[in-house]
Amino acid sequence: MAFFGKKKEIPLGLWMKCPAPACGKMAFTKTVEENLHVCPECGFHMKLSAHARVKQLVDAGTFDPIGEQLQPRDVLRFVDAESYEAKIQKAAARNKDGKGATEGALVGRGRLGGRPLTLCVMDFSYMGGSMGVVVGERFALGAEDALARHVPFVTIATSGGARMHEGALSLMQMAKTSAMVARLREHRVPYVTLLADPCTGGVSASFAAQGDITLAEPGALIGFAGPRVIESTLKTTLPEGFQRAEFLLEHGYIDRIVPRQRLREELGSILDYLVRPTDTTSAAQVR
Predict the structure, then answer these.
(1) Do 174 and 260 lie in a common domain?
(2) Contact indicator for 203, 241 with CB cutoff of 8 Å
(3) Cis peptide before 65 (omega within 30 of 0)
(4) Residues 39 and 54 in one domain
(5) Exposure pattern of 235-262 as b/e (b: 16+ CB <10 Å)?
(6) Do 24 and 109 fall into the same domain?
(7) How confident is the model at residue 116 (pLDDT cuts 50, 70, 90)?
């Protein structure tokens, strides 16, 4: 006589494991998504797509993309395990539904609590959020839009660094984006950056580090070279938590650590502080 009924199949993706080594606990995937991909047990901030960040921060129906027609090209005919052209095509195939990343940065104009702004959000899911020619140009277009409308420019930076597949062309974007930040500062247009895990390489050494106010998510890895590279080069042991947001806040590199759930509120307060009444323009100018 059978005492047990038929084994029920658990749908795939119903549960997920926290990727934090110190946690590793299981949670309902839906619960994690509703918590903005922050572990409900330990508070670990998981990677978040550019579209999800825009949905969190920007008022519904107000986001208007800039530079989406710009797409990467394999001008150097770069090949490692496979050609750069093949990697570009695979990335495009993953975006057939129009909901994925079309490049390492999503740029556009929108409103945050009614406040007009221009936004540049990097997406680590697209080749590690690496910065190539298109990322640099989209950033520049976003900065120019903020300048033209005299509205704050907000950047959320997460990247593995410059895109090696584009060689010196990718490194040139460090100078290009830095020059755009200098123009923002010259015209007194507020520029705010949020550094998310990880923010390294050429991005961390250029526009990500030049905000009028620099925020970071809890536990974010921030730096130019990785800890292992630094240790092997300097032949020394680094301090505990070196290059994490908390260490950098203590040493004055960033201004504030902001949990993801509070980011919209915090950004709103910062923009209210930075945008003085004399800076505001007519509604026609900021549309």
Answers:
(1) yes
(2) no
(3) no
(4) no
(5) eeeeeeeebbbebbbeeebbbebbebee
(6) no
(7) very high
